[in-house]
Amino acid sequence: MRIKIILLITIVFSVVSLFLLSSSKEENHSKSVILIIGDGMGLPIISAYEYYKSEYQKNGFSNFEKFDGSFLVRTRSQDYVITDSAAAATAFATGKKVPNYQVGLIENGKRVPTIMDIAKEEGKSTGIVVECSLTHATPAAFYAFSKSRKDDQFIAQQLIYSNIDVAIGGGLKYFEPLLSNLQKQNYTIIKSEDELYQAIINKKNYERLIAFTASIHPPKYKERKIKLDRKVEYALKILEKNKNGFFLMVEASQIDWFAHDNKLMDEIDEMEDLDRLLSFIFNYKNSKKENDILVLLLADHDCGGLTLVDYKAPYFTPEFKVNYSTTYHTAEHIVGFYSYNSLLKIKPIIDNTEIFQILCNYVKR
Ligand SMILES: [Zn+2]
């Protein structure tokens, strides 16, 4: 008798907990991804920024330490040891190696689906927020194909077919002939940074938005009226409405450009923009505990070959001696960072094409 009662209690308990488990799973099925790319953000500039923030600004270390784990990524493209942003972003977006200067690829007469296309198929919302033209190599690889990354007009036309929910970046010039077409597809079009600023201040809530912050590229960090964190916050307001979750790609685009110019302090400013974004992202993620949000931060490649060489400096200051060894990219592995609610296994060194698989496993419900 006693055994029967214990058995009954066990069964009732199991059924109830199974029910609770399945219902919580039901509610919890929305999986979202925020992929952040620091263009040209090699390990040396991460180091320099951390020294700058902790020793010069006396403001603690970067928000990078809030991630749950990190790993190294091999970056070569199909045809060169040193990749460019087009081939690197295509590897992330499609899982395929392509030659430098190419975004996306065609196989069997069709554009190979990108992670954004797959997110759409899964019923998720998609978005892009960048500090360059929306047609620039990194964002383009997520929605377009072009043998040449420089074919901005051709790339712009393809955004129309991406069915993207929100895009914020420069490039109005290339989209000017397409605006009426975009409006027909129920996009609200914002044409300047000031107009976007007003929309944010007035808490305008749009269904689908394409916001241009510059004719071609937005200015550098200190001249940008709206920093990356505010733009991403605004994009998330649109994306988070979808109960199936979302895929958002954010690029801190200009770290790379100042690395090409060998301008350390401008590079550090762009890192500050990214660091502020991370602070916002972790608060956001924590406030949405019921949602499963994967945050992945990557660089596409190093740029500039920066070394920190001032062996007589007791502290890091803006006068700290550094060497840049090139005005182009370098071949070093880059560091990836991830933050996740449950266990995510990433090997210590992976190829950049493997990022696609990690994203896919997550985007597919
Ligand atoms: Zn570059």
Can you give a write-up of this model?
This protein has 365 residues and is α/β, with parallel strands linked by helices. The protein has a domain of 233 residues: Alkaline Phosphatase, subunit A (3-Layer(aba) Sandwich). The chain is 38% helix and 21% strand. It is built from 13 helices and 16 strands. The strands form 4 sheets. Strands 7-8-6-5-9-1-10-15-2-16 form a 10-stranded mixed sheet, with helices on both faces. A two-stranded antiparallel ribbon has the order 3-4. Strand 7, helix 9 and strand 8 form a beta-alpha-beta unit. Helix 2 packs across helix 12 and helix 10 runs parallel beside helix 12. The protein is globular and about 60 Å long. The chain starts with a helix and ends with a helix. About 5% of the residues have low confidence. The site of zinc ion has 6 residues, from helix 11.
Quick description:
The chain is an alpha/beta fold and 365 residues long. The protein has helices at residues 2-27, 43-56, 85-94, 115-121, 137-140, 152-159, 172-175, 179-184, 193-201, 228-239, 255-260, 264-287, 354-363, and strands at 31-38, 69-74, 106-107, 110-111, 125-133, 166-170, 188-190, 209-214, 246-252, 292-299, 302-303, 306-308, 322-324, 329-330, 334-339, 349-351. The chain has a domain at 37-149 and 228-256 and 273-363: Alkaline Phosphatase, subunit A.
Give the key terms.
single chain; 365 residues; alpha/beta; Alkaline Phosphatase, subunit A; 10-stranded mixed beta sheet; two-stranded antiparallel ribbon; 21% strand; binds zinc ion
Helix content: 25-40%
What is the topology, as strand order, of the major beta sheet?
7-8-6-5-9-1-10-15-2-16
- Name the overall outline: globular
* CATH level-1 class of the domain at 37-149 and 228-256 and 273-363: Alpha Beta
* CATH architect. name of the domain at 37-149 and 228-256 and 273-363: 3-Layer(aba) Sandwich
Q: Give the class from helix and strand content and strand pairing.
A: alpha/beta
Helix and strand sequence: HEHEHEEHEHHEHHEHEHEHHEEEEEEEH
CATH superfamily of the domain at 37-149 and 228-256 and 273-363: Alkaline Phosphatase, subunit A
DSSP, total strands: 16
Strand content: 15-25%
Amino- and carboxy-terminal Cα gap: 45 Å
**Hetero compounds:** zinc ion
The major β-sheet equals:
10 strands, mixed
Number of helices: 13
Overall mean pLDDT: 92
